[in-house]
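Friendly challenge for the regulars: who can give me the structure tokens for this chain first? No prize, just bragging rights.
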Amino acid sequence: MKCPFCNADDTSVIDSRVSEEGDKIRRRRRCLTCDKRFTTYETVELRLPQVVKQDGNRAEFDRKKLLTSFVRALHKRPVPTADVDGAMDRIVQKLLNLGEREIPTRRIGEMVMEELFKLDKVAYIRFASVYRSFQDADDFHNAIKELQKPQKKREEKKS
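First reply, four minutes later:
Bragging rights claimed.
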């Protein structure tokens, strides 16, 4: 670590402490050249994969856009905010666990649909109507029939 006072490369750690939240390490350092002391903080930086859009463009993952998808689908639906936050956290955790550098928007959309299916069936249909570009009432009817199938048959169809 470079000294912020004299830019020397030789510094030593005098003291290390974990923050109360447990997500940062505070280090007191001393420059071996100018003998001045300073503090540094270490935090974990998690890299979410880049999102590959349908047109091939890439963008950073944006949690706000994910929230917007949920908010639009759940508009005026009786779903607690804590449940929405939990669903978003599960999606972000899945993305981190994939360990991939890029992920198509399609895959994120499928994850959103899975979570909406668990939260609220009406919100699921709303999202599906936009996500799958429903063209007429038959598309809605088919989606509703899909909801009414037992869980095993839906999982078999995905495979």
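The chain has a mean pLDDT of 87. The first strand starts at residue 11 and ends at 18. Your move, everyone else.
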